[in-house]
Amino acid sequence: MSVLRIALIISVGFNLFVAGWWVGDIWHRPPMMGMPAPNISFLENLVKDRVSPETIEAIGPSLELIDATFRAGFDARTAIFADLRVAVSAEPYDPAAVSELFSVLVNSRTQTETEQWRQVGETLGQLPADQRSILADIFFPAPADARFLPGLPPGAP
User: Nearest-CA neighbor of 37 among 67, 63, 60?
Assistant: First the structure.
């Protein structure tokens, strides 16, 4: 075997090693921790063909308020995450400060969700029973009917 052939085999092997390392890193990289942007139009599209126009009209302002509440909570959590990045990276590490920020994060999320569910309950109280039942089937499916995305009709893939 010539020196050129050996050099070529080593070069190809090294390139394959680097390419495999790079592809493996991309494929096995953990998911990003960022939250998806809120999308209230998804909810509107989910119910628009299944409930009455009066129900759409009644829940519209609530969806807008829930969206605003969610966005405000999203912004608050983003600020808390920034504070957490600083606290976690600080030297010396202060476990009490990090723990306090975790508590603030949990409380912020809880307050946001509490306000959203209060608004949902208030809105549902204004709807007729048949429309509430349709919405219950969409957003709170029985465990046997639960899908990855809420609101899929039974038998949907």
Answer: 67
